[in-house]
Amino acid sequence: MVGPPPDVAATRVAVRRTLTALGLSGRPVLVACSGGADSLALAAAAGFVVPRAGGSIAGVVVDHGLQAGSHQVAETAATQCRDLGLDPVEVIAVQVTGAGEGPESAARDARYTALAAAATRLGAEAILLGHTRDDQAEQVLLGLARGSGTRSLAGMPLERPARPESSVRLVRPFLSVPRAATEGTCRELGLTPWADPHNDDEVFTRVRARRVLPVLERELGPGVAAALARTADLLRDDAEALDAAAHSAYQALGEPPWPVTGLRELPTAIRRRVWRQLALRHGSPSGALTGEHLRAADALLTHWRGQGPIDLPGGLRVHRRGDLVSLSGPR
Question: Which residue segment(s) compose the domain that 312 sits in?
Fold first, then answer.
């Protein structure tokens, strides 16, 4: 008996292994489909795998309304999802508001909010996303270019809660699958992916990173994208261990003000994570909080010469008075 083409088989195996590893085999899931090659290949693979394991599979296409003809693009994607066996398939229009960290971030926030609400309404336990190994490599490359820390270089996790305290999970089955395989799957199955013009617009840093990877592969040899993705996996284990240690230290602090000595005795990697948790807990926006902010706050412990207070995003201020430090501002 002849099996499916290699690319089709690779995407199906990735979905099957991921759902099995996460205890989602035979459970109701939802596919987020943009109409691009990655998410269409995911819809095809999940549409094949999930019902055969006894689960149900729905689809959601989010129309951001940011480009002319976006509604038609969404409807075309929804039709292809239905043809692939997803049922029901919904097209959800969202309004992208607020610049925040940029238009991409605002669109992502609106999309994930809509997906989480749809998953709850449809009874799905997980939302499947089509990010590939190449997306992961680009994420790590951007982190390196920005001089980011371990958490950023750890890239995208295989799974995480769709929203804080939510039981619905975001799951990325294709983080081990190259983009070439999703494009090949679409060709083999006769699917028509949408080519997002934003993917060619060099105003977006991620587009420039995408164009750098083939150069690295050519100059350094094949396998750079896979190596960057492996780096993310290794660093994620380290980041999770450090985050857990920082969370324990954070919980032990109690209410402010906090003794300088207790904080200063923590290892630097853990102490800066504690600063981050303190800032986030008191209302600092996560995307606006940088390593420079954390280093400045940390200097109140390690190199204090009477300086301060230190301003943090969200209207926060870090104060040191004698042997005590505290945060003031909106909570």
Answer: 254-328
